[in-house]
Structures are given as C-alpha cells and as structure tokens.
Amino acid sequence: MLGAHxxxxxxxxxxxxxxxxxxxxxxxxxxxxxxxxxxxxxxxxPLCAQKVxxxxxxxxxxxxxxxxxxxxxxxxxxxDDVGTLTIKWDKVHRIVSPRYFEVEDERxxxxxxxxxxxxADQRMVVxxxxxxxxxxxxxxxxxxxxxLGFWERVDGKLNLNLxxxxxxxxxxxxxxxDAQHRTRVRLTELQSSTYFQTQEGAAQTSRNSVALSELxxxxxxxxxxxxxxxxxxxxxxxxxxxxxxxxxxxFLIQTNRIEVRTLxxxxxxxxxxxxxxxxxxxxxxxxxxxxxxxxxxxKTDIQTTFTLYPSLTDxxxxxxxxxxxxxxxxxRDFNTGFTVFYTFDSRPTSATAARxxxxxxxxxGWTF
Length: 368
Prior knowledge:
Elements: E1 11-13, E2 21-22, E3 25-26, H1 28-43, E4 53-57, E5 62-71, E6 74-78, E7 84-88, E8 92-105, E9 110-116, E10 123-128, E11 131-136, E12 140-145, E13 154-165, E14 170-182, E15 186-199, E16 202-217, E17 222-233, E18 238-254, E19 258-273, E20 279-294, E21 300-310, E22 318-331, E23 334-345, E24 356-367
C-alpha cells in the first residue's frame, strides 16, 4: 500500500535457517525445489478429479469442495451438494488442500505449494517439500490452482445499453465486451466497444474500438505491458487510428477491496481523419487505473482509467481518454450500472474535427 508496509510474515522451516532469499525474493534453489514438488503433484493426478479441499468459515461451518480461485476478495469454491459458491475472503478462517497453488499477497510476493492447516484462525500455510510459509489470510489477494485449463482461466463481461426517444426519434445501441485470461505470470485482455446512434434531422454517428493488451507480472508488484488498438469515432471525424505501445509500471495498492496501478511507456500511432491523409506519431503513454470492488450484497465494482498521450513528434499536442464505470449485481452474474467516457484531442489533424467527445450510458451486463 502507499505509505504503509505490511508486517513481516511468520516463516517456519523444517531445517536450519539458510540464505534462501535475496532482497526479499526466493532464490534459484527454492524455485527448483518448488518446481520439483509441482511435478510430483501432477504425477498424483487422481487428486485433480476429487473434491479434497476444505474451507472453514467464520460461523464454524466446514465445507468440502474444490478451490477454483481467489480474486477481488472473493473465493470461488465448487461443491457437489450446492454447486459453485462465492465466499467473501474475510469470512474464511481456515483453508486446507493437498493440491498445489500459486498464492500472492498484497506486496506482490508469490508462494507455491499445498495449503496446510495453520496453528491459528485466519492464517494459512503454503508448503512445498521442506519449505513452509505461514501467511495472514487477510493479506492474501490471489490464489490460483496450478494446472488449470485455458477456459478455466478466462473471465469476462458483456454490457448492453439501448436508448429510444419517440419525440426526436433518437435510437442508440451500444455493446461492450471484455475478456481476460490469467496465467501465473501474464494477464491477457481483449476489449471491444461499439456504439451506433441515429436521430431525425441529424447525421448518424458511431464509435468503435478493439484493443488487445498483455501484462507480465514481475516481482514486488512491478509490471511490463504491451498493447495494440484500433479505433474509429465519427464524432471526432476519426476514420481510423491504429496504436501499438509498450512500457512498464507497478501496482501502487493491491488489497482485497482496492487495486491501483500506473503504467508508462511509448506508443506509435497511425491515424487518418476524414478529408486528411494518414499521419504517424510517436507519443508518450501514461496510464492510471483504479478499481474498487465490494462483495457484500449488492456486489459493486467501480473502475476508472485515465490515459494521457503527449506527442513527441507533434510537440504540444496532447490526447487523453477517461473511462469510468459503476456496476451493481442484482442477480447472480447479472448487473446494472452506468458508464462514462471522455475523449480529448488538443490539436486534431483535421481542421473540422471536434476536440472533445463524451457520453454516459446506462448498462445491463452479464459476467462470466
């Protein structure tokens, strides 16, 4: 967290203390031992087909099932009797599994191993061969089983917004899609958005974009990123803009309620406005993203992303994009809310193009 340091984690080993960490990170020896343990687990494949995990929650209930994941403060847990449950992470007192997992804490440190019983509530033990780490449950932000298939690692959402006004015969439709695939060290995200509007006595307008990005997770919450994007906006007379960029950044805050990250790098763009020829630019890329998620009913997500593009080849030109959304879940996997966007270009290539575009839309969404 900003301006705060997590208390040191209890660390117990079954052998005399050795110099196994350098600058707080596991040594090569520890990684090799962990990999060997993981390979041994894959050899014991019958465990994969059984629900052998145990969760004890605050009221003392003991639930046997299968840990699917922990993310955004919610443990997804599959059972035979009542199907798939979502359990608030701060309600979990104990968690045990003989299977192997990747566990990440608030400070971005990762641990690999089976989950063993701890000596006290709201503690968890991650163990592989001779190494044992005891963690504070409330400081753990992610848990993923090692060996998940491709589709089991995919999450996403689909939002639809429709508008109709009889008085001026205004009709609009918008569709937003977002899918994420996460592995041990990467997050790949595909985003697309389309909006179309017609109105009596006015020209049709549309706005479309598709973007593919990848984050690579490094130690201590550091990140590398690469992205590509195609964009069209009739309101700004933008026929097509292509962008490829790369850079790095860091999670500034990472808890079970809040994530804040910042990224910086370079982006190459090629854009064509109506009535103008294509122009290429080299721009700086500065992004800040904040997310708040509440898992009490109604489940709530608030997300804001602000991106700034100061041009290096057209000095003085600055572009910016702001996107914000608020969603509430009203039944399982379905939500309602609104989205806001604002786009600014201080010096469009086309003399007739608008410098601003903004809008707000009510949405009905589905998460998967």
